[in-house]
Specification:
39% helix, two-stranded antiparallel sheet, alpha/beta, 6-stranded mixed β-sheet, 10 strands
């Protein structure tokens, strides 16, 4: 999905406020993900696009983690009333929320402060909080693959997908565990401000700029067996020539594999087929060019490897729900440098 039109600059600047709800038993790594990802983006004038604060369900004070230390949280539940987005990271001490799907009185009172229309997101088992609060009834959602069956059993009205990295259902988003939380937060930045901003955050964080939400959670071979050939060289080769026709047999030949072996190993390492991966990379390339250049839609289609504007339009519509022109209009952020078409383009 793509965010609505950016507000007019004359209306005044206010960063989007992300409030992270810290619950006892939280995982420190996952608590830090929203701060790391949302704390990076800047507009063309260097102003932070997000303000990130952490709150507890209690008055300011310590919150226990699953490690041998606590964290001091400076805000109480009243901060939830100020949020544009609320993120609930994982916790290992959810008590009745995890055991029976019921909110504690303290947690229910805190969540009641969240304004209608606030975007909600969860990382890993934080999904149980959103589910127990009724925000996921009749909706698709995901969590860590090891918890998916239990989540479905406890909340039968949720359409749990155990295989994907994250689910974007508009105003409610859920993710699998740990690294998928990074993918989800980058996805929200991309949705809010476009691929160029999200890619810059990813570069500074030294993580992959984009893993599609529909990618498999469990990848059989995330780290290639050193005794066997990897498909990484073929992926790098393809990324360097997205504007050219790329055949599966050509990618397989780069790794001296049969097409069948290459396809199997590619899916084991990446989580999607080579064809799906190529489309994802070309969509990302098209998004970047639409945001940061004045190239015509026809030229963007050629440079991204779609060949024709009609083909690109179909793929962007399927992936983002908008046309190339609408996407460009939404994410033309003031002050961002743009390249221009050459005389021959």
């Amino acid at each position: 999905m793509v965010a609505a039109e950016l507000p007019d600059a004359s209306a005044g600047f206010r960063p989007h406020r992300v409030v992270v709800l810290a619950l006892d038993g939280l995982l420190p790594f996952e608590l830090g993900i929203p701060h790391r990802i949302f704390g990076r983006p800047r507009d063309g004038r260097g102003r932070p696009l997000y303000e990130v604060i952490t709150c507890s369900v209690r008055p300011p004070g310590p919150v226990e983690t699953d490690a041998d230390f606590a964290v001091h949280v400076a805000h109480g539940p009243e901060a939830l009333a100020t949020a544009d987005t609320v993120v609930v990271p994982a916790s290992y001490e959810l008590g009745p929320v995890y055991e029976r799907g019921e909110l504690t009185g303290e947690l229910a009172a805190a969540l009641a402060r969240v304004r209608p229309g606030t975007r909600l997101a969860s990382i890993c088992t934080g999904v149980y909080v959103l589910a127990a609060a009724g925000h996921l009834d009749g909706r698709p959602a995901t969590t860590h693959w090891a918890d998916a069956e239990r989540l479905q059993r406890l909340f039968p009205r949720i359409a749990v997908d155990p295989d994907v990295l994250f689910v974007d259902d508009g105003d409610v988003l859920t993710s699998a565990g740990v690294a998928a939380g990074i993918d989800l937060c980058l996805h929200m930045v991309r949705r809010d401000h476009g691929a160029a901003v999200a890619n810059e955050v990813a570069r500074r964080t030294v993580v992959p700029p984009h893993r599609d939400g529909g990618q498999a959670q469990y990848i059989e071979r995330p780290v290639p067996d050193p005794r066997q050939s990897s498909t990484s060289g073929a992926r790098a080769w393809a990324l360097g020539r997205l504007d050219e026709p790329i055949q599966l047999r050509d990618m397989a030949a780069r790794e001296a594999m049969s097409v069948r072996t290459f396809t199997r190993r590619f899916r084991e390492e990446v989580g999607v087929s080579p064809g799906q991966w190529l489309v994802q990379q070309r969509v990302e390339r098209a998004r970047y060019l639409l945001e940061t250049t004045d190239l015509s839609v026809d030229r963007v289609a050629r440079d991204a490897g779609f060949g024709t504007a009609q083909s690109m339009r179909q793929h962007l519509q399927a992936a983002l729900g908008v046309t190339p022109t609408a996407y460009r209009r939404t994410f033309r952020t003031a002050g961002r440098p743009r390249a221009t078409a050459s005389a021959g383009g």
